[in-house]
Design brief:
The chain has helices spanning 11-23, 36-46, 62-68, 87-92, 105-147, 193-199, 247-256; strands at 2-7, 27-33, 50-53, 76-81, 97-100, 151-154, 161-164, 170-174, 177-182, 185-189, 205-209, 212-215, 219-224, 230-234, 239-241, 321-324, 331-334. By secondary structure, it is of the alpha/beta class. It folds into three domains: 2-125, Rossmann fold; 153-256, LytTr DNA-binding domain (OB fold (Dihydrolipoamide Acetyltransferase, E2P)), CATH 2.40.50; 258-340, no CATH class. The longest helix has 43 residues, at 105-147.
């Protein structure tokens, strides 16, 4: 749709322009004004694609109106006048056409075609300009990332390598050194684990034990041991196991990245929870809770949680009780505890 505005102090001229615009299928008139002073704020507010503008008007003439427009992309201007001597000045203002009164519908149609062509050219140029600006922005951003990319010098003696921080999959302290994993290779940093952590601060680090940090961008698989520790398989194939004191921190970190699953809270963990493995696994290992001595009730059951104490069996030891499995949605039969 081509939007337009008519500014002419003669009512008959405005009516003729309105009729000719109505004959064009894609032209919409946003407004008509009899003088330039009242038209100026309307043009800046409504921002029409085209402006059919008389030149000789009281208060503010057409030439002055065009020069007064404070717009980054002013409308395409068509001067409509009975005076030929303004033509040169009109085209200095980049007018799309100069309609000399009187004119017929065919001549007006040619003018509208010129306006359409000008708009297509301007929009194409604007798109090209926007594309070039976007590409330039991306190139600057990429150059900035490369310039501030954290890098580490690894190795000992005269043979050393320079690594990008995002290549490092894990960093583990070993005596007075730190071993870093990159793919299937291991490198040595002559530094403390705290210094390595500061050097890798641009990466999403996960501490799985007192002496080991994992770059979570390189974690590919997650499973659980029967004790409830997490086993993380990295991109290069190396495996890292979480320590007992870090189970809860690892669980909470994994929950942040898990879609559609929430790790069970301590009060929600039952004796009959099934071991599933992977990110979406419940925190209690074991397909079914094993037989327990009553003295063991209340001990730690799974990753970093104090499990609920199981209900003691009553009767002669042959009575069965049923525990609801929250993930499978069915009732799981649990054998009674073995009596001492």
């Amino acid at each position: 749709m081509l939007t337009a505005m008519i500014v002419d102090d003669e009512a008959s001229s405005r009516r003729l322009l309105r009729e000719y615009c109505a004959a064009e299928p894609d032209v919409q008139i946003l407004g008509e004004y009899a003088d330039g002073r009242s038209a100026l704020p309307a043009v800046e507010t409504t921002r029409p694609d085209a402006l059919f503008l008389d030149i000789e008007m009281d208060a503010l003439d057409g030439m002055t109106l065009v020069r007064a427009l404070e717009m980054s992309r002013p409308p395409v201007v068509v001067f409509v006048t009975a005076h030929v001597h303004y033509a040169a000045e009109a085209f200095e203002l980049f007018a799309a056409d100069y309609l000399l009164k009187p004119f017929d519908v065919a001549r007006f149609h040619d003018t509208v075609e010129r306006v359409r062509w000008r708009l297509r050219a301007e929009r194409s140029a604007a798109r090209q300009e926007a594309l070039e600006a976007a590409l330039e922005h991306l190139q600057r951003a990429r150059a900035a990332r490369v310039a501030r990319r954290p890098r580490l010098v690894v190795g000992t003696g005269s043979d050393r390598q320079v690594l990008d921080a995002d290549q490092i999959e894990a960093a583990c302290a070993e005596r007075n050194y730190v071993k870093v994993n990159v793919g299937s290779e291991a490198h040595i940093l002559r530094a403390t684990l705290r210094a390595a952590q500061q050097a890798l601060c641009s990466q999403p680090l996960l501490r799985v034990s007192r002496s080991c940090l994992v770059n979570f961008n390189h974690v590919r698989r997650i499973s659980r041991t029967r004790r409830g520790d997490y086993i993380l398989v990295l991109t290069g194939g190396a495996t890292v196991t979480s320590a007992e004191g870090y189970r809860e921190a690892v669980r909470l970190h994994l929950e942040r990245y898990t879609v559609g699953w929430r790790a069970p809270r301590p009060a929600e963990i039952g004796v009959g929870s099934a071991e599933r493995g992977g990110v979406g696994a419940p925190d209690c290992p074991g397909e079914h809770a094993g037989k327990q001595h009553p003295a063991h009730v209340g001990q730690e059951q799974c990753a970093g949680h104090a499990a609920d104490a199981p209900e003691r069996a009553h009767g002669d030891g042959e009575q069965h009780r049923k525990q609801h499995d929250p993930e499978e949605g069915h009732r799981t039969e649990v054998q009674p505890e073995e009596q001492p």
